[in-house]
Amino acid sequence: MLRLPAVAGQFYPGNPNELSALVEKYTSHPEPRNRLKARACLVPHAGYIYSGAVAGAVFSTISLSRRILLLGVRHYPRGEDLAILSEGAWRTPLGDVPIDAPLAARLRAECPGLQEDAIAHSREHSLEVELPFLQVLDPGFSFVPLAVGTLRFEELVETGEGIAKVLAESPDEILIVTSSDMNHYEDDETTRRKDRLAIDCLLRLDPRSLYQTCRDKNITMCGLGPAITMLTAVRCLGGEKGELMRYATSGDVSGDRDAVVGYAGMTFA
Questions:
Q1: pTM for this prediction
Q2: Burial, 200: exposed, middle or buried (Cβ in 10 Å; 0-12, 13-18, 19+)?
Q3: Does domain 2-268 have CATH number 3.40.830.10?
Q4: Number of neighbouring beta carbons within 10 Å of residue 194
Q5: Do the beta carbons of residue 122 and residue 77 sit within 8 Å?
């Protein structure tokens, strides 16, 4: 199947020249002497005007791989709770990105909860908005899209453990890119305080603490499910630390501090 762009011209420019220029702007940091070797990263998925600089701070710093597992949240109610697409390609204004069919097949074999489902992906923006960054910085990559619509902790952990097994057995490097915004629509001070609590759990690679903290403190991190899955996989792979590369809120751009969304860019090694 060919999955057509759902939010081009809304979350990011629909014109390929404008889109490439904007990605290059957000990733035009001084070239690091040695790019960071990361097992995974966490990047936001709002409109580029709000969160592009945070995502760019991560993508321009880490070593990207030619095979990528892209974990996003299923914002809409339709579709499977753990929705994978195993064949075809995704189109953006910058061209088509092939789905890594062999990797998808291995993931489905080791993660029994994954279900083939195009509906969950058809209008979902959380994965789509990351692709242009990768197309500009990592041309020629292939990927597997996974949209997470459940918050059942044990199911998320089981999926993370299956992902870790697949990645551990792979002869190729596979990067996990996890897409999530942080707290939503509270004032800037409250959002920064709440997000710090969640970020501390992420830095410790502690999925259970992240889950409980977001529940207890009412932190509306939309990609909580994908983040739990990612943290589980990273820990199983021997990951030891997380690093916060950049943090911002939408108020930094809009000037509205009364109702903001938080954005964290993080790496995990």
A1: 0.97
A2: middle
A3: yes
A4: 22
A5: no
